[in-house]
Amino acid sequence: MKEFGAAIIGCGSIFTKHAEAIATLKGVKLLAVVDTDANKAAEAAREYGCQAFTDYNEILNRQDIDVVHLCTPHYLHAEMAIDLLNAGKHVLTEKPIAMNLPSAWRMLEAAERNKGQLGVVFQNRYNEPSVRMKETIESGILGSLICMKGIVTWNRNDAYYTNSGWRGKWETEGGGVLINQTIHTLDLLQWFGGDIASVQGSVTTDVLSDVIEVEDTAHAVIVFRNNVRALFYGTNAYLVNSPVELELVFEQGTLLLRRNCLYLFKEGKETLLFEPFTTITNSKSYWGTGHNRLIEDFYEHVKSDRDFWINGTEGIKALQLVMDIYNSSSTR
């Protein structure tokens, strides 16, 4: 079987999740890392036994590199992905797919034109509670879905933004809590609910207005075409990173995700359906445990020449919802 060569662009906080996942895969070898910070690139290359570069153009013509992971700031996703796809590479990018919809559509066009895979990292779809929620909706075992809510209360302090040259700015991050932190929860809500009929929302900067130009808090009411209503609230203005809360109300019961445990409330009784049994290491707890499964699944699709299911088209759905909330807020 052909060995697939991989590269990672961006050696920041999420880099390790990708590098460690690649290290566990049979038939896949990390050949190169890229970062504009030469020291970061060199340190990552030493740790994972590969080459280091400071310019991603140096890997474009490498015939031994088949898949490139984008772990870069938001504003670089589209340009890099298009160049890589045009060079015949498959691309797996961290969320969001791009900073805006026109850039995302150009990425899709490049993937289609070059017959390359374009995957987007929404790893929470692989978390066991998310999978069970989706299966419950599709099976109808609890009747029809009626409504949902998603709540994200996290903390991002001044240093998170001031120590970065791109976060907290419209031009380089594309937004704040919506497009960066809570986009995972919005992705789950739209994955569960299906096609969206209307969105009404607002964004504010409640705590960090002297540090960032984007929002730190947002809320929205999302109505789906099947008449399911979802309420969403997200903020970076809390003082701790609380676990994400999700609630799905069905005709015959309710599923609740609390503190990473999934419960069923039915006929006046609450039953624990899932409890995490592994400790998350070398990462932040709120990233969840889905990165390894998603990355492995992406390579399985590439190896078998099957379209990865969280592709560009899927990745755009969450971005569209983010943009709709921004537009609703600006137009009141």
Automatic annotation (TrEMBL):
Output the superkingdom of the source species: Bacteria
Domain named GFO/IDH/MocA-like oxidoreductase: residues: 132-255
Pinpoint the Gfo/Idh/MocA-like oxidoreductase N-terminal domain residues: 5-120
Q: Which GO terms describe its molecular function?
A: nucleotide binding
- Signal sequence residues: none
Tell me which Pfam families the record gives. Answer: GFO_IDH_MocA (PF01408), GFO_IDH_MocA_C3 (PF22725)
The record, for InterPro entries, names:
Gfo/Idh/MocA-like_OxRdtase_N, Gfo/Idh/MocA_Oxidoreductase, GFO_IDH_MocA-like_dom, NAD(P)-bd_dom_sf
Checking PANTHER family in the record gives: D-GLUCOSIDE 3-DEHYDROGENASE, UDP-N-ACETYL-2-AMINO-2-DEOXY-D-GLUCURONATE OXIDASE
In Swiss-Prot or TrEMBL terms, this protein is called Gfo/Idh/MocA family oxidoreductase
- Species of the source: Paenibacillus monticola
Phylogenetic classification of the source organism: Bacteria, Bacillati, Bacillota, Bacilli, Bacillales
